[in-house]
Design goal:
With about 450 residues, the protein is α+β, with helices and mostly antiparallel strands. The chain folds into three domains: about 160 residues, no CATH class; about 55 residues; about 150 residues, Histidine kinase-like ATPase, C-terminal domain (Heat Shock Protein 90), CATH 3.30.565.10. A five-stranded mixed beta sheet has the order 2-1-5-4-3. Strands 7-9-10-12-11 form a five-stranded mixed beta sheet. It has a two-stranded antiparallel sheet with strand order 6-8. Helix 5 runs antiparallel to helix 6. The radius of gyration is 48 Å and the shape is rod-shaped. It catalyses: ATP + protein L-histidine = ADP + protein N-phospho-L-histidine.
């Protein structure tokens, strides 16, 4: 608790509120003392009015008037004449005199603090101006024990009230800080920890939502940093894979070009009638070399942007893929089947999802066409509470063991002769960018099935 931002803020709030209450307490007690003494002057003046009304009062009545006023004697100065209006024995000499007529704030505070720290009972003289101009001044003598007890009682009530106010204020500020600052900061920290666990997952890139401008600036800076870091990590990963494959690519490319060179030499130096048969081989060899070079360079650039996740109908994407593949089938006996609910909406990048499904369907088409037999490619989909599932199934010859061993590794997981394996590697990477997975559910003589799993919801909700 003490090591948290909200906990320390709570403690500091209590301290500062109490400090503010103490600063208020001192002048409050001084004002209370002033009001107390002025009230005693007013009581004494009222008591003296009885004597003015009747010059002769008995000793019992005079004692009762002084007792009610809580003073020992009353002196009233009227018409430049100083008159002892009421009097009683004073138990001890007068210790101090306080003139309330022109007392300043500093003087009142000083006298109040001195009164609090003097525990012994003293006799003091208090001078003030009579109310309603009933004379020039009024002077009383009184004991300080009642005054000090009243000041202590008032001070205790002020301190208790201050403590309650400070606790309530601190608790409200604690809740406000948690809602306005601590919770958004924890959200940012959560996104950072989640992103560190899987930097390639685009769902883990923070989306700025804070209402506080400083926090929003921090979220936007973090988002920019995460996007740049994701691109840099992809670049590094691809370059590392590319570097490991350079030797193999160079060797294969050299062999392909050597064959093409031999065919070219034969064409240039010979009038052999077999030239017509050699020419297509030359073209195929060069085409394969060019395709391998282009795929390698494209993979090394790592220019894939983070997916722009939107809600889209999956059936439209599958239909677009099938329309393109039907044009490539030509006269081959190959059929396409869609088993996607018309109202099924997924959260994905439309262009990247198209590329993933297109890669899987194209690989299936090429595998079936290579056998020269009829076949079918089917795409189905369903969902549950946690994710969407898309299956691409074909009736092809299945994957060879070597392809299964390095299925999603570039330059190693090719599923057909002459393939580089980049299609599946790129597709798996695109699906990971959505926070999902691309897996091989099964393969054999009766066909192959790949499954795409796209999770629902944001990382922050999980």
């Amino acid at each position: 608790m003490l090591n948290t931002l909200s906990g320390r803020f709570l403690i500091l709030t209590v301290i500062f509120v109490m400090l503010a209450e103490v600063l208020i307490f001192v002048p409050s007690v001084a004002r209370y003392r002033e009001d107390y003494l002025l009230s005693r002057l007013e009581r004494a003046q009222i008591a003296s009015l009885a004597l003015l009304a009747d010059d002769m009062i008995d000793a019992e009545l005079e004692e009762e008037l002084l007792k009610n006023a809580e003073v020992y004697n009353v002196v009233l100065r009227r018409d430049e004449v100083r008159q002892l209006m009421l009097s009683s024995p004073i138990p001890r000499p007068i210790d101090a005199t306080y003139d309330m007529r022109n007392a300043g704030a500093v003087e009142l505070i000083r006298d109040a603090m001195m009164q609090l720290f003097h525990s012994e009972d003293r006799v003091i003289r208090v001078i003030g101006a009579p109310v309603r101009e009933a004379g020039l001044l009024i002077e009383i003598t009184m004991a300080t024990s009642g005054l000090r007890m009243a000041m202590l009682d008032y001070g205790v009530r002020i301190l208790v009230l201050s403590a309650v106010i400070s606790v309530v204020t601190a608790f409200l500020l604690f809740l406000a800080v948690r809602a306005i600052l601590v919770r958004p900061i924890k959200g940012v920290v959560g996104y950072m920890q989640s992103y560190a666990a899987a930097p390639e997952d685009a769902r883990r890139i923070i989306q700025p939502t804070a209402g506080v401008s400083e926090l929003r600036e921090a979220e936007e800076a973090l988002q920019s940093l995460q996007i740049e870091l994701t691109a840099a990590l992809k670049q590094k990963e691809r370059l590392a894979q590319l570097g490991g494959a350079v030797a193999k690519v160079s060797h294969d490319l050299r062999n392909i070009l050597t064959s093409a060179q031999l065919f070219t030499d034969r064409i240039e130096t010979s009038e052999d009638p077999l030239v017509r048969r050699l020419a297509p081989k030359l073209v195929n060899s060069i085409t394969r070399a060019v395709h391998l070079c282009e795929s390698t360079l494209a993979f090394g650039r790592a220019e894939e942007p983070p997916p722009k996740l939107t809600r889209l109908p999956l059936l439209n994407v599958v239909s677009d893929v099938f329309e393109g593949e039907r044009l490539a089938v030509g006269e081959n006996d190959l059929s396409f089947a869609e088993d996607v609910p018309a109202g099924l909406m997924v959260r994905a990048d439309a262009e990247q999802l198209y590329r993933v499904i297109s890669n899987l369907v194209r690989n299936a088409r090429q595998a079936i066409v290579a056998t020269g037999k009829p076949g079918e490619i089917a795409v189905s989909a369903h969902e549950d509470d946690m994710a969407w599932f898309i299956e691409v199934r074909d009736t092809g010859p299945g994957l060879p063991p070597k392809a299964q061993e390095h299925l999603f590794q570039p330059f190693q997981g090719g599923i057909r002769k002459g393939g580089s394996g980049l299609g599946l590697a790129i597709s798996a990477e695109l699906v990971r960018g959505h926070g999902g997975t691309l897996t091989l559910k099964g393969t054999g003589e009766d066909g192959t099935c790949f499954e795409i799993c796209l999770p629902k919801g944001d990382v922050a909700d999980q």
